[in-house]
């Protein structure tokens, strides 16, 4: 077993091994999406459609044969993509709050209705909204226990990722920074990690009022808390952190957010000003386990939000358009 592990991971640095483990855990915790996708394909009659087409059918052939609304083609693509064979997962470091949230009925139930959502009309609502009658943010804001569950999940992920970023190869990202704003930073786990590792960095957590109000009072001794809508205002700082923010928004909204960030950066890029983006980009890795996890994440994000993980080609387009601002 030890030889197999050495052959599989080689002599990777500790933080890379942890990141690999977290990716494998994410793949495991999102594994139900493949089952739901299979059920969706069965309910839609995908196998019968392929059989009627002589055993071979393109995505557009399937879309037409299933009589789905034109706006559902991208989602059908995601469903079919995750049904392809992928590498099996091993074990990962515990991220219990995140895993529990991803496997909660709040997140899982909409995935059982993918076929019904695909058969519905246009793109006015997500599968999550169709099932729960309200979006993810609305569900979390109207039910404090759900909001707390979500915040705990995001905080667990932030602590894990920031620990590797700060203590691993990403530490140099924080060089020469004296102030940082964690944009849509939730309960501030990421900002507190930075403040603890770099006491000279003045850290601010920016989020909606109901999120900031849920943060324990003693956390304000370490970081500054700011209740504001990021689309309206972002305070000036040397660096801005966007951790798992952009995948929740359309390209157009991402550009608005990044424009606000660009306005808030005090020094120029050459002088050390920076926007730190941590997010999922589909196709950013050639490893099968990473690709499979990215695709599952993209599918589930599309169930709950009117967006999806940033595709590499869309990221390139986004970078180009931002450069023209």
From TrEMBL:
GO molecular function annotations of the record:
O-methyltransferase activity; protein dimerization activity
- InterPro entries recorded for this chain? COMT-like (IPR016461), COMT_C (IPR001077), COMT_dimerisation (IPR012967), SAM-dependent_MTases_sf (IPR029063), WH-like_DNA-bd_sf (IPR036388), WH_DNA-bd_sf (IPR036390)
Tell me where in this chain the O-methyltransferase C-terminal domain is found. 114-313
Q: Which residues form the active site?
A: 247
Please state every residue range assigned to the domain named O-methyltransferase dimerisation. Answer: 26-83
Report if keyword Transferase is assigned.
yes
Q: Which named protein is this? A: O-methyltransferase domain-containing protein
Q: What organism is recorded for this protein?
A: Oryza sativa subsp. japonica
């Amino acid at each position: 077993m030890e030889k197999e592990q050495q052959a599989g991971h080689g002599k990777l640095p500790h933080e890379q091994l942890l990141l690999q483990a977290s990716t494998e855990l994410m793949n495991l915790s999102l594994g139900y999406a493949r089952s739901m996708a299979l059920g969706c394909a069965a309910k839609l009659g995908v196998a019968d459609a392929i059989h009627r087409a002589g055993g071979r059918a393109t995505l557009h052939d399937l879309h037409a044969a299933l009589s789905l609304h034109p706006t559902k083609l991208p989602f059908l693509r995601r469903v079919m993509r995750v049904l392809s064979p992928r590498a099996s997962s091993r074990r990962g470091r515990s991220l219990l709050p995140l895993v529990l949230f991803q496997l909660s009925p709040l997140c899982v139930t909409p995935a059982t209705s993918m076929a019904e959502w695909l058969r519905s009309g246009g793109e006015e609502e997500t599968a999550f909204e169709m099932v729960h009658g309200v979006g993810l943010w609305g569900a979390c804001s109207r039910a404090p226990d759900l909001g707390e569950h979500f915040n705990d999940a995001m905080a667990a992920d932030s602590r894990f990722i920031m620990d590797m970023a700060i203590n691993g190869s990403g530490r140099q990202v924080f060089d020469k920074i004296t102030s940082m704003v964690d944009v849509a930073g939730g309960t501030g786990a990421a900002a507190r990690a930075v403040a603890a590792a770099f006491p000279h960095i003045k850290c601010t957590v920016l989020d909606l009022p109901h999120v900031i109000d849920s943060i324990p009072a003693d956390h304000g001794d370490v970081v500054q808390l700011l209740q504001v809508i990021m689309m309206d205002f972002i305070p000036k700082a040397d660096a801005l952190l966007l951790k798992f923010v952009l995948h929740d928004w359309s390209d157009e909204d991402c550009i608005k957010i990044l424009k606000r960030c660009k306005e808030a950066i005090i020094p120029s890029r050459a002088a050390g000003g920076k926007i730190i983006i941590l997010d999922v980009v589909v196709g950013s890795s050639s490893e099968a386990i990473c690709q499979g996890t990215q695709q599952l994440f993209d599918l589930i994000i599309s169930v709950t939000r009117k967006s999806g993980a940033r595709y590499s080609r869309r990221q390139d387009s986004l970078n180009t358009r931002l450069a023209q601002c």
